């Protein structure tokens, strides 16, 4: 098991003989760096699954890049629903737009 630490949520990579399980994709601006690190860990992995622990942007922001890297996204119904909504976080002073359909868990 490997930890990719970041500002906010962390990304965990678990290797198995038949593939990878990645937990959380991190912030959007760090996704490509994470994918580079993941590829170094297991360049020949056939199956790659990204599991979203929850919908916050520091855990799902990189989903679109991970999907483009041919990772299957998994997560709860609630995670999928929240990622499809426009969410205003008044106490933090910003709004999160809905994630593209392809970047949400099925």
Descriptive overview:
By secondary structure, the protein is of the alpha/beta class. The protein contains 4 helices and 7 strands, in the order βββαβααβαββ. The chain has helices at 31-41, 57-60, 63-68, 77-83, and strands at 2-4, 11-16, 19-23, 47-52, 72-75, 87-89, 94-96. The chain has a 5-stranded mixed sheet with strand order 1-2-3-4-5. It is globular. The model has no long low-confidence stretch (mean pLDDT 92).
Observed structural traits:
single chain; 106 residues; alpha/beta; 5-stranded mixed beta sheet; two-stranded antiparallel sheet; 7 strands
The spatial strand order of the largest sheet comes to 1-2-3-4-5
Secondary structure tally: strands: 7
Gap between N and C termini? 25 Å
Tell me the structural class: alpha/beta
Uncertain stretches? none
Count the helices. How many?
4
SSE order: EEEHEHHEHEE
* Overall radius of gyration: 13 Å
Beta-strand portion reads: 25-35%
Task: Give the CA-based shape.
Answer: globular
Biggest pleated-sheet summary: 5 strands, mixed
Query: Helical residue percent?
Result: 25-40%
Give the averaged pLDDT, no decimals: 92
